[in-house]
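Good morning,

Both structures are done.
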Amino acid sequence: MMRVCFLSFCLLFAAPIAAAMPGCAPGQDEKSCMMQAIWESAAGFPADKRDRLKTLFLNTLALSGDTALLAEWEGRLDGEAAPQPHYPDYLRERAEAELREADWNRFLQQAQAGLPPFNIGRPELMAAGARLAPDAATRRRVTDAMFALAGPPQRDARPLEDFERGDFGHVLSELAMETCDLAMFDRAVQLTVEPDGLRYAFWRARITGNAAPLAARVRSGGNGQQDTRHVREALEGYGAILQRGYCPA
């Protein structure tokens, strides 16, 4: 009887401990822990899907500049990070060309009216313009115009009913993550089609300064052997932290 009670006692208290294990322990090297969690979340995929994720995984880790950790993972996965080819930044080039032809007032007028070149890819082109802004006030003018064009969040709308709103939400969230603007991020992410998405959770964690608790979500989020989106979103989200570091406290 005592043995049964002791076993029940152990199981009762072991369950919360086991549940906490998937996270990154305090003081543990975050990069090692998080990359381990991301790769473990791919464990259920067939070998060919894991093979296709290897290069993306290693390229993401390479953003950190941690050559020792990268070499360790290259050995474990029997692969190498592949240098990314340099592609022209067409959006930046289009925004620069538009600004050469006109001032910021004209840039915003054209964007708000949806006139060429803003008739295609308007959210992304306006975001490129925001990154070219010469000062914070001009950048704010552009992002304010983007919020106005997106309109308020529509929680009951189907994803394809207003895809431009979702695109505005995505690029505005990215701009806010880059500039460490938490209030803007929390406003922008509500415009996206997946406000609670893992990518955005990592982007928000870059601003707030602690992604370690997300390791548990990464490990538990794999949903079968077909959809690799969970892993790709984790890599894209954490990649921003590896590349840029955390925002100043």
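Second structure follows.
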Amino acid sequence: MMNRLAGRNVVVLAGGVGGAKLVAGLAAIVPPEQLTAVVNTGDDFRHLGVMVCPDLDTVMYTLAGLANGETGWGRLGESWRTMGEVSRYGGPTWFSLGDLDLGVHLTRSHWLAEGMSLTAVTRRLCTRLDIPLALLPMSDQPAPTKIETVDGRVLPFQEWFVKERWQPDVKKVVLPEDIRASAELIQRLEKADIVVIAPSNPFVSIDPILNVYPVRAMLMDLPEVVVAVSPIVGG
């Protein structure tokens, strides 16, 4: 595998846990200057006043060796004192933010409010965590994935997945229109020799990335190799 990847630029399209594990595996054999991870931001949302990027953070924590290995998401050694206080005061607790995790969300939200792009913010966070490869959000624009349920509601993804515990039957996944990739993402795809689609949910992790213009078209025109790793292990 190392010989096949030698000197080749690899771009991975990834969601959360499955994508993070694949990126971490590739990072062990591909030089960081040749490896780029493009991560779904369709389930990003604002909660308790801070911007939360679940998939970006899962990949980032995994690459930094900070991920909770038991859950696959969140921080190793996490504590929940802040959420305990939120509960005390009657605030929304349906989506828990750990004390360590909040450090990232607060810092990200501060830099975004100062006018930095999500790409620039993510790069700065990765630098502080000594992550050498390029970790890119799929777009610098908000691109919320929504779930239309059979009972006629249209819910933001996290509300359907976490608050409603994915119980409402799904009619369709609704992706936003006119979402564009950053210049850096386009440059990385232009230089890609191999694109790997990670074993992430094809509907709510991978399709949102392909929905970003011009990612799908660029993959169709890629002269080299596009490889998809199935998230289905059995059944």
